[in-house]
Specification:
There is one protein chain. Among the domains are: 99 residues, no CATH class; 86 residues; 106 residues, no CATH class. It is built from 20 helices and eleven strands. The strands form four sheets. A four-stranded mixed beta sheet has the order 5-4-3-6. Helix 7 packs parallel to helix 11 and helix 13 crosses helix 14. The longest helix is centred in the first third of the chain and has 33 residues.
Length: 460
Amino acid sequence: MTRTDTVADLEGLRARLDVCGAAEDWEIDNLIRDLVDVRRAADLMLAEAAGRTGARSGPGNGGMARRQGHRSIDHYLASRTGGTVAEAERLRLLGAALLAEGDDAAAGAPVLPHLTWVARQRELSVDAFFLLRDVLMRHPDALEAVGATVDDALREVPLARVPLARLEQVTVDKARGAALSSVRTLVAQVEVGLTPVPDAEDGYEALTRQRLAFFREERSGMIRLTALLDPLTAAHLMAATDGYLKKAFLARKDGGAGEDDRTPAQMRADAFGWLGRHAAACEQPHESVATVVNVRMSLESLQALAGQAGIDGITRSLPVGALRRELAEAGFIPTVVGGDSEVLDQGRMERLFTLPQRRAIGERDRGCGKCGLQPSMCHTHHVMNWRHGGATDLKNGLMLCAYHHHWLHEEKWQVVRRGGLPWFVPPASVDPQRRPQPGHLAQSTLTDSDLQAMSRQGPW
């Protein structure tokens, strides 16, 4: 692409942008998609240029960077991009991977060819590329390809028994076009699947040793609370504050909250105050805010107290061994799942969704089907309206946050399931072709079907 071609493309996009005020929604959406495509193309070209510049500068502090008056090639690149040295280093490493020859295993490209190919197709951001590359390079096949030593314990973990090529293709394809938050959730699941249990438990112990909290009085008189909490400590606080927020939002919707114009952040601050007052007088009623922490695990993990478990509202799974004490305490409810994430012993069907059904749907959907907001902040929606013959059962239930529950009805979107996961079909006014868009889980989770398809030995 010449500079003339690039300028012509940008001028065409500029002309479309200048008249977008009168455009249809779908036309503006197509313009944004095209702008993102141009941005990613520019990012890739900049990365390749950074990679070539790095190769030209050679090892050490000499070469082009020194001639330009900079102590390293990354400092030189940062001076040109206006970003940080760390960002410049990432660009250079991405460029090296994209430019790597077939025998250049150290750059990672031949080890992860599908990831590199998808990046070249401009379907991944720079941040998503590095998140995926870093986690996939933990696979035993990848470590062996670059000459690293592989621990025997690593070979026994679930995703290590999956061929790297299969894991790479499924994981990368899920991340194509996904939001970075979804890619982070997906990468966290892969990382857990590539971590031996002893390492996971040791890692969690290291997390707990990093916990801290302190108060500081600001000059204004306000008190600043700063905290860094391990997931189990945070789980109860998150459940309590989420319950407080949900109760406040419902009261506002029903008109029983008066002139409640608090922001969610202000409500959360008030929730901490409520917790403190409740602790000071715990014999008093606690304003009907019930707080439970839902822990998800397989039946085998519960019986053996081994493996991994998920906690609502927390992205990373935790080793079941770290949950031994908490599972015996009030407030922690283990939701036990069998094969294909089928929830066991969750009650019979009734006209309205029962509490066991809502927990079952929450376990399956892991939160809002559209955005992934945690189950405690969600409603249970009939995919087919009950008045139109839709059943009140698990198959017809879908978890949605309040915003997306109203959005689905008011904006006339529809829900279909693909492989058991919700996809959202826009109205023709949004997309004339009505192409289904993946929900949160479809882009952020390796499902049981994915794992079975990848596995050398079937489901595990």
